[in-house]
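Input.
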Amino acid sequence: MPIILDPLQMKKLRGKKRLRKPRPDKVPVRPEGELAKRMNQLWERVLFPATERIKRLVEAGATPSELASVIEQAMRQAEFEYNLAAEDIVWRWRLSLEQDTRLAFVKGLRASLGVDISAIFEDQPLADALAMAGMEAANLIKTIPSDYLGQVARAVADNFTGVPQPENRNLLQQIQHIGGVTDKRAKLIARDQTAKLTGALTRVRQQSIGVDLYTWRTVQDERVVGRPGGNYPIGSKRHSNHHIMEGLYCRWDDPTVYSTDKGRTWLKRTQEMPKNHPKDDIQCRCHAAPVIDLEKILEKARVS
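Output.
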């Protein structure tokens, strides 16, 4: 899609000699908080009452068969409620995130280029990114009841067969613990999915204005995976080593290569390097700083 400029903007852009450093694509706080809040409200409306009922039955000395029947009934009802609510929750989250990231992207371009750029973002790649993210987030939300109540059912079965609960908890304490873990998982889903979609929208929007390359940037603190002396000095299969990616040139069309000479030559990423883009890994806080090529932007520009 073309970038729409008026004649004065086009003239100003053609005469641009120096670009300001682009702003990082920060993960918006509002959409993440809204998603976490709605998931918490769903928990309180559906799973919290079911949990309280199960706990009362445990305290009353219910038999394993009675507990199993209640858990099975609660699971069917919870799965129905979560399936019903997930699509609406995700739709609102995507809308909020798309709006916030769009405003930030346009504002960042204005600060870097010195002109207002109105690119048409409602194209197929953007729709695809939103659709894929929505599907993943909705599926994760829908699995919460079966994961949670499945763990509760396992705790009840272990208690019946005499298998000790973890860390010597009794059954009630274990059910309470599982609930806390599930609550943390919901917050993790909100944080991780918001970061991933932010990264996907960044990629689509950068490519839409002719940005093919980016510089991998970490937050450069002790939590960066792979940083010597940091909290996680050794990379993992799950998260690779992001510390060594700092400052390297990368390509949006090929996440398996990197460059140390500003894109003149490309090398295959080593085994410890991630084979994806910033924010793709779970809880990744890195960002893709665009390598802006004015000529490519001008090629896509059209005077209004």
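DSSP finds six helices and eight strands in the chain.
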